[in-house]
Write a structure and sequence with these properties.
Helix content: 25-40%
Largest sheet: 7 strands, mixed
Number of domains: 2
Order of helices and strands: EEEHHEEEEEEEHHEHEHEEHEHEHHEHE
Shape: globular
CATH superfamily of the largest domain: Medium-chain alcohol dehydrogenases, catalytic domain
Radius of gyration: 20 Å
Distance between the termini: 17 Å
CATH class of the largest domain: Alpha Beta
Strand content: 25-35%
CATH topology of the largest domain: Quinone Oxidoreductase, Chain A, domain 1
Length: 340
Amino acid sequence: MINTVYRLIAPGMIDVACTEPDIKNNVILRPLYLSICKADQRYYLGNRSREVLKAKLPMALIHECCAKVVFDPTGNFRSGEIVVPVPNMPMEEDDVIAENYLTTSRFCSSGYDGFLRDYIDMPPDRLVRVPDGVDPRIASFAELISVAVHAVRRFERFSHSRKNSIGIWGDGNVGFITALILKALYPETKLYIFGTVYEKLGYFSFADGAYHVDHVPEGLKIDHAFECVGGEGSRFALAQIIDLINPEGTVGLMGVSERFVDINTRMVLERGLCLFGSSRSGVSDFQKTMDILAENPKISAYLENLIGTVAEIKSIADIHSAFAQDISRNFGKTVLKWDK
């Protein structure tokens, strides 16, 4: 079996490569929907260092995908089942360190081919079934949802029992999804959103309060916080979090920044704060994500707000067009309907 893979060979340049998938040991999938991530855009636009691009290209982009089973030689899945492939590929097991933090793990679309291919071959233990009733377009960005789920699960490990209020800094996709997960798991907790764009803050109608960072109600305090801003804005977000959080609160760091970010360590020490980082996710997080979506249909209804453009992909030109449309998007996801 010969497979066609669409690899980024240089910023803005996609070429076709032919590979031979492992049809003896892996499940063969046909992509249904794929979703563009900011990390994909950074590679596509060349917004990574020359050294990183040289080390990781050529490679197929996209690590957010929903696919249909075509053939499974292992007998774990039947043809036609809808699944999401887990892009994290651990090379070893560790009793302490999670699979997504092992330095030996491989990650699809980060130095290894992602899912921009006609067919995907994956080990059966890297696949999670999509429950009936879950929109496959939403399942296409299950990876992003699982990242939020993973962060919340880590938060449960590190935080103390008082969770009267939680603040989320960031009014983008990560902040929106993290807020939804927290509201589902902690329905009695007051949830406050802090952002910079009033239009985007309007999407957080399920929260107990959504505030512009320059107009926070006087006296508002929170028990815990999540920083979902990233970039240059992380510095201001963390400063405001440290100012508003109660002593011994926990702060989840989720925003990605290319440069070092200043943190007021004096106040971190004085208030006994716990800061933890969170990145990517593993199979158990994907399964938890699917359980949450199946048990909370309201979440899926809110997640539909993230579905922006649904671009039909029939050619390489369509891939370029979809990436071009996604560049200007500051909220929501560009979903690719794979019709090649």
